[in-house]
Amino acid sequence: MLxxxxxxxxxxxxTIAMSWLIGIFLLVxxxxxxxxxxxxxxxxxxxxxxxxxxTLKVPAGYQLELLxxxxxxxxxxxxxxxGNMLVGSRSGHIYRLPPPYNEPEPPLLILPDYPHSxxxxxxxxxxxxxxxxxxxxYDPSEEILDESxxxxxxxxxxxxxxxxxxxxxxxxxxxYLGLGITxxxxxxxxxxSYPWRDRRGGVMVLDETATPPVWKPWANGLRNxxxxxxxxxxxxxxxxxxxxxxxxxxxxxxxxxxxEQNSFHGMPWYQYDGNRINRDNCxxxxxPRTDAVAxxxxxxxxxxxxxxxxxxxxxxxxxYHGDALVALHGxxxxxxxxxxxxxxxxxRPPKLVLVRFxxxxxxxxxxxxxxxxxxxxxxxxxxxGLGTGPDGVLYFTSDGGINGLYRLxxx
Length: 411
Known about the structure:
Layout: E1 2-3, E2 10-16, E3 20-25, E4 33-37, E5 40-49, E6 52-59, E7 62-68, E8 74-79, E9 85-89, E10 93-97, E11 109-110, E12 117-121, E13 124-128, E14 132-137, E15 151-155, E16 166-169, E17 175-179, E18 202-207, E19 214-220, E20 228-230, E21 237-241, E22 254-259, E23 263-264, E24 270-272, E25 277-279, E26 297-299, E27 305-310, H1 317-320, E28 324-328, E29 351-358, E30 361-369, E31 381-388, E32 394-401, E33 404-410
Parallel strand pairs: 1-7, 19-23
Antiparallel strand pairs: 2-3, 4-5, 5-6, 7-33, 8-9, 9-10, 10-11, 12-13, 13-14, 14-15, 16-17, 17-18, 18-19, 20-21, 21-22, 22-26, 24-25, 27-28, 28-29, 29-30, 31-32, 32-33
């Protein structure tokens, strides 16, 4: 069920869907109807939001709870050693929420260059902004951070267009960074032969054995890999990837790709159509390589995949250990041609999906939580960041529809 504070109440007015400004009511009108969706049993729950009705499919035995709406455009998040949640945001705020994560403290920092993602390592909070990787001493007991202690570690190729930068710590304790190319067909590639500003479109790793540290390519040819994580058994990295918009509503599918050192995933020179890899003539320059690999799994075109989170522990681990949750943000493209001018109800809906694994390989994609977009095209939420908390519960942020933090708890 979708609940807020265990009761019906009026929340502040919030912009959702097509910029409607409405009063928000969240309550359960009906629930616990069994529905079979592929290999996951679901319960059906209905939420009323102003004049809009949303029918949610939630894994059986669980309920969906909205914890707070007091964050502006929250993105990816982490947990510190004290169990606090730290959240980056498109608004520039870095939020901290102590358990039970229903009330953010005053922002730890407010930064101008889009602090999309965070990492804590060796007593420092590392912050990936569009144009730089920075760090600041971090102690969970401090109420606010002193911006004068913020230290720039290394520049990041910046610029407009896909300006999020995803920072995560790998199993080898190194820092990995995902960044997208500027547009659909931008001639950008992670290689020293390209100008600094054009070294985009993949995942880099920070070589801290060098003085000063340097970025080195890890995987290339990804248009916008916002989410990535490592399989808990194989240690192999997998990433989501946003496909281009210029081929319409149905093509190309969005990627869920296996990323290995020096792997090449084709974009913008090549696109995978669901069966084979084809040359994309939208870019005139010749490809730097021709050995593009196909994705491990796909999602429908214009789904806009965001964070990736492998389930390794917590309440969901018994049923889904080794499977990867992916947040699908839902795109602006509408039928029939993929432009933003059609009926908003035809947009790909936001949802959470589960990439199933067997013997260390991706096998299927199942719907996990759906119903965030209703038949009129209004959106309740647009899932963004994913993670399992110290309490073993799944959390996710939404930076569209109702901005805030949600969790999936057992009934």
